[in-house]
Amino acid sequence: MTSKQAIGAAGESRAAEFLATRGLRVIERNFRVRGGELDLVCRDGGVVVFVEVRLRASTAYGGAAASITAAKQARLILAARHWLARHGERPCRFDCVLIQDGKVEWLRDAFRPA
Predict the structure, then answer these.
(1) Which long-range contacts (CB under 8 A, 24 or more apart) does 38-42 make?
(2) Which of 18, 46, 67, 69 has the fewest CB atoms within 10 Å distance of its CB?
């Protein structure tokens, strides 16, 4: 594992712990399909939550939130559709956890499929 991958894995673990303290249950990590990946798949009551974790050391280049482009959202939606096809359709939403300058920010229902 490269140092960049280790930093990313640590960020995902921090995000998972953060969400768990707020009542979400992580049910899968790093779900990959051709064309997309889901960092965390959680349950929030009866809702499946697909979580994108973004880690940034600074706000240069727009920061963590700016890195979730329309193309990135499309890849997340593609992966989520594959996950739902395998596990059954159910209500879902897309959240983002932004870790920047040592702070964690949770964006619930950050975007929706078009």
Answers:
(1) 38/76, 38/79, 38/80, 38/83, 39/12, 39/15, 40/12, 40/15, 40/16, 40/97, 41/83, 42/95
(2) 46
